[in-house]
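This entry is listed below:
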Amino acid sequence: MMPKIEKSKKNREFISRKRRWTAAVAYTGVGLIYTYLKRGRDPFLLLHLNQAFGVVVLWVAMAALGQWDAFALWTGYAGLVLDILALTGAITALRGWQEPIPILGKIQILKPQED
């Protein structure tokens, strides 16, 4: 019998429903703009916005590379991985967690706004 593994309580504070949905919508691509405009100084939104930005940039790159027959199959697989990462990020945001997604979680493209 395997021991029960508990999730860490780190980065698990109360996040309002509105903030969770705003963060999750960023992973849709078009919702990235909406979340960007709503981010303010919120570190929760900024974390998910950075991750979603990385996913969307890679989606665009895979779409461009997929136009060539030599890359079509590989970009299809990479697109599937990106879809899974986006779904993971959206679920993490909806749960109110501030944990990074695999591979792209440490990306920090956007910095917090200053006054």
Q: What stands out?
A: Helices lie at 17-25, 31-38, 43-65, 72-95.
